[in-house]
Amino acid sequence: MRLSNILKDMEYDLVQGTLDQDISEIIFDSRIKQTNSLFICISGFTLDGHDKAEEAIQNGAVAVLVEKDIHVPNGVTVIKVENTRNAMAKVASNFNDNPSDDINVIGITGTNGKTSITHFLKSILNEANHKTGVIGTLGTVIDDELIPTNNTTPESVDLQKFLKDMAITDHDYCLIEVSSHSLQLKRVAHTKFSTGIFTNLSPDHLELHKTMDEYFEAKAQLFTMTEKANIINADDIYGQRLIEQLRDSNVKTLTYGIHEKADFYASDIEYSLEGTSYTLHTPFETAKINIHLPGEIYVSNSLAAIAAAYSNGIAIEAIQTGLANVSNIDGRFETVYSSGNFNVIVDFAHTEDALQKTISILKPFVKGNIILVFGVYADMSENGRDKRYGMGRVAAEYADFSIVTLDNPKNHDIETIMKETTDAIERNKGKFIEIRDREKAIQYAIEISEQDDCILLAGKGHETTQVIGDEEIYFSEKEIVQKAMETKVFQ
Ligand SMILES: CC(=O)N[C@H]1[C@@H](OP(=O)(O)OP(=O)(O)OC[C@H]2O[C@@H](n3ccc(=O)[nH]c3=O)[C@H](O)[C@@H]2O)O[C@H](CO)[C@@H](O)[C@@H]1O[C@H](C)C(=O)N[C@@H](C)C(=O)N[C@H](CCC(=O)O)C(=O)O
Ligand SMILES: Nc1ncnc2c1ncn2[C@@H]1O[C@H](COP(=O)(O)OP(=O)(O)OP(=O)(O)O)[C@@H](O)[C@H]1O
């Protein structure tokens, strides 16, 4: 594409060179070899892409997009903008023919629940014969093929490429899990969203946002980018704040909830470990809903999907069948072993709120003990300490016995993680043991378990690796459980 077209509808200064040339690719990593590319210099957290422009040029870049002054050889075009992350999103959209103009994009944000909402909604939309793609934590799904991705919300260059692939393969909808990182770092800027969904906000990612107010404001940005409807959880205090904030918005707000007054709500809820049924109330009708996931959080998440489907004109029959068709979601309350009353469940609960809610789902159905295996992923800051304390407290108060282990410690200090988490359990009078090796921790849980117990492996969910230091090792909780159960004998 011509460089001048790539820069369409943007404000910029042409510092040197010409816009009259063809660009083959947009890149933001200088190590990528690509002739005739446009290199975008990002001022990162660890290094400055402006210092890498020379390497990018050696690797084939013929133009660079900057937000600071740099010196490069005369033949190279230099374009200066105010913010290269924001400009990168616009350039990526232009380069891919602005694909969000051609596809109905629904963005889902909030600390927890995004992944299950995308599953519920995709199933509903498929049932209504709408081809639907997904971009989220479990990867990108185009034409029902899973493309693994590193981040929940990819960088704009990749995101716009995925949207274009969906647009040219006649997808009607794209469901995007929109992380707070992606909003703050402009990964979804210049994407047209028809609908936004807000689930909830509880402490997480404070290494980036520092305060809950900043975290909330990052999430709230999505609801200024929507054109059709904003769907908000009325049960969440930050949801209430958002509803208030959107009072004068031109975009329609629809609310959902179980406890607070809302446009879409549930009554007559019947829970079992296998699933949940309830009566759905919409502004127009009532209907019976059955889902194969247990507990209040999935009632809430399904209500969000229902409200989004409704606001896009989907009939109730497709909603009912679509929801009933979701039998399980990778690593979300997934039973990986079951025999009689004994169950081993893998769940992605990795925040205090999610852990508390997930153990609470189990409580009424477990005759014996709830044995919890968990670790805490958080940085070394005060916010990280609060997370370790919070998850330790929940373990003490809600589980019968905890095995404290490692999540993905990455380069964080393991001694501090273990000490602060176990201190919190002790202070809250919980019973626990510390086993740092997660595989051994799981094996121990199985060894001590009895016939009526339930083991909850929390925090890693769908993940198939564990990151310790700079090393990423293969790690499958399902396989570990299955192997350990082969030799298990109940007393
Ligand atoms: C904290 C964070 O979000 N970091 C993002 C940030 O990294 P950074 O600022 O450290 O990058 P950097 O290493 O300083 O490099 C700056 C620039 O120089 C470039 N570079 C770097 C090295 C080099 O040799 N040459 C070069 O050109 C890099 O490509 C980059 O453009 O900018 C990078 C490029 O845009 C992102 O890939 C990176 O995401 C990393 C992979 C990441 O792990 N992010 C996580 C925390 C994240 O985004 N998570 C959210 C939330 C998930 C959830 O909800 O749980 C997600 O959406 O996944
Ligand atoms: N509505 C909810 N409220 C609180 N916790 C929830 C809710 N929905 C799911 N959870 C918990 O959060 C965990 C993660 O859920 P899910 O993967 O849907 O969230 P997410 O928003 O996609 O998170 P991430 O971006 O970290 O993947 C679940 O395994 C469950 O323990």
Automatic annotation (TrEMBL):
<dbReference type="InterPro" id="IPR005761">
    <property type="entry name" value="UDP-N-AcMur-Glu-dNH2Pim_ligase"/>
</dbReference>
<feature type="domain" description="Mur ligase C-terminal">
    <location>
        <begin position="331"/>
        <end position="461"/>
    </location>
</feature>
<keyword id="KW-0547">Nucleotide-binding</keyword>
<feature type="domain" description="Mur ligase central">
    <location>
        <begin position="108"/>
        <end position="309"/>
    </location>
</feature>
<feature type="binding site">
    <location>
        <position position="187"/>
    </location>
    <ligand>
        <name>UDP-N-acetyl-alpha-D-muramoyl-L-alanyl-D-glutamate</name>
    </ligand>
</feature>
<keyword id="KW-0131">Cell cycle</keyword>
<dbReference type="InterPro" id="IPR013221">
    <property type="entry name" value="Mur_ligase_cen"/>
</dbReference>
<dbReference type="Pfam" id="PF01225">
    <property type="entry name" value="Mur_ligase"/>
</dbReference>
<dbReference type="InterPro" id="IPR035911">
    <property type="entry name" value="MurE/MurF_N"/>
</dbReference>
<dbReference type="GO" id="GO:0008765">
    <property type="term" value="F:UDP-N-acetylmuramoylalanyl-D-glutamate-2,6-diaminopimelate ligase activity"/>
</dbReference>
<keyword id="KW-0067">ATP-binding</keyword>
<feature type="modified residue" description="N6-carboxylysine">
    <location>
        <position position="219"/>
    </location>
</feature>
<dbReference type="Pfam" id="PF08245">
    <property type="entry name" value="Mur_ligase_M"/>
</dbReference>
<feature type="binding site">
    <location>
        <begin position="110"/>
        <end position="116"/>
    </location>
    <ligand>
        <name>ATP</name>
    </ligand>
</feature>
<feature type="binding site">
    <location>
        <position position="151"/>
    </location>
    <ligand>
        <name>UDP-N-acetyl-alpha-D-muramoyl-L-alanyl-D-glutamate</name>
    </ligand>
</feature>
<keyword id="KW-0132">Cell division</keyword>
<keyword id="KW-0460">Magnesium</keyword>
<comment type="similarity">
    <text>Belongs to the MurCDEF family. MurE subfamily.</text>
</comment>
<keyword id="KW-0963">Cytoplasm</keyword>
<dbReference type="Pfam" id="PF02875">
    <property type="entry name" value="Mur_ligase_C"/>
</dbReference>
<keyword id="KW-0961">Cell wall biogenesis/degradation</keyword>
<dbReference type="InterPro" id="IPR000713">
    <property type="entry name" value="Mur_ligase_N"/>
</dbReference>
<feature type="domain" description="Mur ligase N-terminal catalytic">
    <location>
        <begin position="24"/>
        <end position="95"/>
    </location>
</feature>
<feature type="binding site">
    <location>
        <begin position="152"/>
        <end position="153"/>
    </location>
    <ligand>
        <name>UDP-N-acetyl-alpha-D-muramoyl-L-alanyl-D-glutamate</name>
    </ligand>
</feature>
<feature type="binding site">
    <location>
        <position position="30"/>
    </location>
    <ligand>
        <name>UDP-N-acetyl-alpha-D-muramoyl-L-alanyl-D-glutamate</name>
    </ligand>
</feature>
<dbReference type="InterPro" id="IPR036565">
    <property type="entry name" value="Mur-like_cat_sf"/>
</dbReference>
<dbReference type="InterPro" id="IPR036615">
    <property type="entry name" value="Mur_ligase_C_dom_sf"/>
</dbReference>
<dbReference type="InterPro" id="IPR004101">
    <property type="entry name" value="Mur_ligase_C"/>
</dbReference>
<protein>
    <recommendedName>
        <fullName>UDP-N-acetylmuramyl-tripeptide synthetase</fullName>
        <ecNumber>6.3.2.-</ecNumber>
    </recommendedName>
</protein>
<comment type="function">
    <text>Catalyzes the addition of an amino acid to the nucleotide precursor UDP-N-acetylmuramoyl-L-alanyl-D-glutamate (UMAG) in the biosynthesis of bacterial cell-wall peptidoglycan.</text>
</comment>
<keyword id="KW-0133">Cell shape</keyword>
<feature type="binding site">
    <location>
        <position position="179"/>
    </location>
    <ligand>
        <name>UDP-N-acetyl-alpha-D-muramoyl-L-alanyl-D-glutamate</name>
    </ligand>
</feature>
<keyword id="KW-0436">Ligase</keyword>
<comment type="pathway">
    <text>Cell wall biogenesis; peptidoglycan biosynthesis.</text>
</comment>
<keyword id="KW-0573">Peptidoglycan synthesis</keyword>
